Design the sequence.
């Protein structure tokens, strides 16, 4: 097992503070920055072929597919979770019941609620599986809750959805990159790339099973979604791609040139290795918070929320320790570049400046 004293990823990261805020935005690895800068400079100089390479985009697509255990043909690329969810929402028949956990992330929920002709229902996260019924057309939820880091019972949700013929939509934005994901077990998965996937903003990923693809309307169809790439520049697209590429958005090349490098780094380190590292750091932080007399949300998540400590975020920031406040909770989130020293520094500040002795 790797020591929590050392970061994973070598010299790829150079934070200037104690950065425990990946759930808001991941740090860019050096190689991704270099790729973005190189493309920007080439474009400024008059790059042959325009502002980016589709081959690099497909490298990113393939790398993400390997990380989540599906074929590249099941992956669509885009710009944000909200856009992916909007396509799914617009494809649902009027009157469909969509089931969500209470307090899940707005970009998953709102594309459905604005329809006005869908039946949306909200239940506590720990009752999500048991609340799926014969009228449920789709259950949509985050693998890890943004507000407090709680994880869902994946197996129970899948089993209940299968028993009632409901489709499933999993938002892996707060988990992909540290928690192993088998995307093929879900009808749809979405993941914003700029958090635990370490990609520049503007890269996101949608996976669609072959069966679910048949009922998904390609409302963003454009010249890049044709089966043949360069024959659809004018007039209607002749034939949409047979794969999930039919759901691609026009590509933000700077983002994807960086994303290809970031995803390659995650593959090199290994998600299982990252999972063990971040869970160890999160457990150390929870134990330390308890020792200080507070009650964190208990879970085996890389995201740790501490109710009642939201007002400490400013003091932490003044001490160069960066966390978030979400739903009134202080939220710490750990990734491969963090170490035990980062955890102990945050606990030292929370302890009021007294040197923290470590959480074991």
Sequence:
């Amino acid at each position: 097992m790797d020591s929590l004293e050392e970061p994973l990823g070598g010299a790829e990261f150079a934070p200037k503070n104690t950065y425990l805020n990946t759930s808001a935005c991941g740090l860019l690895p050096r190689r991704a920055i270099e790729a973005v800068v190189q493309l920007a400079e080439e474009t400024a100089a008059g790059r042959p072929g325009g502002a980016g390479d589709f081959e690099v985009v497909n490298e990113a697509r393939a790398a993400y597919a390997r990380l989540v255990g599906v074929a590249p043909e099941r992956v669509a690329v885009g710009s944000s979770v909200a856009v992916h969810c909007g396509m799914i929402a617009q494809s649902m028949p009027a009157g469909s019941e969509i089931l969500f956990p209470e307090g899940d992330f707005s970009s998953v929920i709102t594309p459905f609620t604005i329809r006005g002709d869908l039946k949306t229902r909200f239940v506590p996260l720990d009752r999500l599986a048991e609340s799926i019924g014969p009228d449920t057309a789709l259950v949509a939820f985050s693998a890890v809750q943004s507000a407090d880091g709680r994880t869902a019972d994946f197996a129970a949700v899948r089993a209940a959805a299968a028993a009632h013929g409901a489709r499933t939509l999993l938002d892996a934005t707060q988990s992909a990159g540290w928690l192993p994901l088998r995307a093929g077990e879900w009808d749809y998965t979405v993941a914003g790339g700029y958090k635990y996937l370490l990609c520049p903003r503007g890269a996101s990923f949608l996976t669609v099973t072959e069966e679910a693809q048949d009922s998904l309307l390609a409302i963003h169809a454009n010249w890049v979604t044709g089966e043949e790439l360069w024959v659809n520049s004018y007039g209607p697209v002749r034939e949409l791609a047979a794969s999930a590429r039919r759901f691609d958005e026009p590509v933000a090349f700077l983002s994807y040139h960086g994303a290809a490098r970031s995803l390659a780094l995650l593959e090199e380190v290994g998600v299982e290795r990252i999972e063990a590292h971040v869970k160890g750091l999160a457990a150390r932080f929870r134990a330390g918070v308890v020792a200080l007399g507070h009650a964190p949300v208990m879970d085996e998540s890389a995201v740790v929320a501490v109710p009642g400590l939201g007002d400490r975020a400013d003091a932490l920031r003044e001490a160069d320790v960066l966390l978030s406040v979400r739903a009134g909770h202080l939220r710490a989130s750990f990734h491969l570049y963090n170490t035990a020293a980062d955890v102990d520094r945050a606990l030292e500040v929370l302890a009021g400046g007294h040197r923290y002795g470590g959480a074991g």
Remarks:
- The first strand starts at residue 18 and ends at 19.
- The two ends are 16 Å apart (CA to CA).
- The longest helix spans residues 271-291.
